[in-house]
Amino acid sequence: RTVSRPDYFGTSKSAPVLIHSENAQYTPTHGDKPVSGICKISLVVDPFGLPENPRVLKSLDPGLDISALAAVNDYRFFPAIEDEEPVSAAVVVDVSFAPPDDALYSPEFE
Predict the structure, then answer these.
(1) pTM for the whole thing?
(2) Does residue 28 contact residue 76 with C-beta atoms inside 8 Å?
């Protein structure tokens, strides 16, 4: 099938475009301190815009890594285009984590 996209011109391969994302759930960590940061996930976006083979490139915390992988599985993309046809393409996505506000509360600061 021929696909057109308003931001794509020419015959070279375009990158996939994220059109729907889910927030990753912050999970309790195994230490005393709350963890925040970015978990990097690599994946392949198939010609239908679905994520395939997500893998953790940069780990943050084992529980948060699992949460990031679960969220990324629900992402949806406009697929990459090459010669006006949808094709698979590899991408890296950043999943950000910050502890909930109540996790930052510490009675020692009263």
Answers:
(1) 0.77
(2) no
Q: What is the DSSP letter of 7?
A: T
Compute the Cα dihedral for 39, 16, 23, 68 and give only its sign.
Answer: negative
What's the CA angle centered on 20, arms 70 and 18, to 5 degrees?
A: 100
Tell me the chain's radius of gyration from C-alpha atoms.
Answer: 18
pLDDT value of residue 36: 87
In the sheet that holds 37-45, the strands lie side by side as 51-58, 37-45, 89-97
Q: What phi and psi, each to the nearest 5 degrees, are found at residue 82?
A: -140, 125
pLDDT at 82: 86
AA letter at 62: P
CB-based contact 24:75 (threshold 8 Å): no
**Which residues partner with 84 through β-bridges?**
none
89 neighbors 45 (Cβ within 8 angstroms): yes
Q: Which residue has the tokens 């070279």?
A: 12
**Which amino acid is it at 102?**
D
Q: Hey, what amino acid is at 56?
A: V
